[in-house]
Design brief:
Layout (H helix, E strand, L loop, with lengths): L13 H8 L1 H17 L3 H11 L4 E4 L4 H13 L4 E5 L6 H14 L4 E3 L3 H11 L8 H20 L4 E3 L16 E4 L4 E4 L7 H11 L58
This protein binds iron/sulfur cluster (SF4).
The site of iron/sulfur cluster (SF4) has 13 residues, from helix 7.
Length: about 270
């Protein structure tokens, strides 16, 4: 694999200013990209189309899961400039951090590691306790807010495009994920270049390219988040059943990705 031209870039470019100051232009760009990506047959072509179309910093948030490792491989293959970052919540499995290190070595790139605000974490733990997220859904969401959502907002600030590894068949809540949509909250175009991939297609891509993956996947963890909030699943269970398993299905998102409704989906 050729060393990828991937680096962390901060600040707001002139192109990003145009997208931010004219949301209507951003919405139109998202509509066009949604159509374009649906007509392209490979991840690499879709990423190149994104790089060509977005006027400003295009950022990719990776959780180092299977989907994001595939997207990272695709990004490296394009040899184009993307800003790659991950959120370190302070509660990750050691295997997740090893996967981060292995990925940087494999692709010759640096992933920007974004941490939560230390004072916010101290206040949260002082109020709810070190495992307070198990007390209630509200307490769990407060922990995700401090350790994930606020750092995400900080990492996305100034970006014009945000690439994710969301897939429609990951869960019922993601069934209508479009290829591209205007994200009014973050004022950028949100891009999901493997939205239409099945699990079989994802696994075949990873095997074909020998993409480094978290060893926990082989131990029954299809979806990996923070260590105290993730368990292995049993055969036949939904692939996200191991996330916040003490909660019912409807509330199981951490706030990083709002659920698109059917009428909002372009695809
Ligand atoms: S997944 Fe669990 S430990 Fe991680 S931020 Fe959310 S509640 Fe906190």
């Amino acid at each position: 694999m050729t060393k990828a031209n991937v680096r962390a870039r901060a600040g707001r470019s002139a192109g990003a200013e145009a997208v931010h100051s004219e949301p209507a232009a951003g919405e139109e760009l998202a509509r066009q990209l949604d159509q374009t990506l649906s007509e392209l047959d490979s991840l690499e072509k879709r990423l190149l189309a994104i790089a060509d179309a977005i006027p400003g910093r295009v950022t990719f948030s990776t959780s180092l899961g299977l989907e994001d490792q595939a997207v990272l491989h695709g990004i490296a293959a394009t040899e184009r400039t993307f800003d790659v970052f991950t959120l370190d919540t302070g509660r990750h499995f050691p295997e997740t951090l090893e996967t981060l290190d292995a990925s940087e070595l494999r692709y010759g790139l640096k992933v920007r590691v974004v941490f939560p605000d230390a004072a916010d974490v101290e206040l949260l733990v002082a109020r709810d306790g070190i495992m307070g997220f198990r007390q209630s859904i509200e307490a769990r969401k407060a922990c995700c807010e401090v350790r994930k959502v606020r750092p995400l907002n900080k990492a996305l600030a100034g970006a014009a495009g945000w690439i994710t590894g969301l897939r429609r068949d990951q869960s019922s809540g993601r069934a209508h994920v479009p290829f591209a949509t205007w994200d009014g909250e973050h004022q950028l175009v949100k891009l999901n270049p493997i939205a239409d991939w099945s699990l079989e297609k994802l696994e075949a891509y990873i095997e074909e390219h020998a993409v480094p993956v978290n060893p926990l996947h082989a131990r029954g963890f299809p979806s990996i988040g923070c260590q105290p909030c993730t368990r292995a699943i049993r055969p036949g269970e939904d692939i996200r059943a191991g996330r916040w398993w003490w909660e019912n299905e409807d509330g199981k998102e951490c706030g990083l990705h709002n659920r698109p409704k059917p009428k909002e989906a372009h695809a």
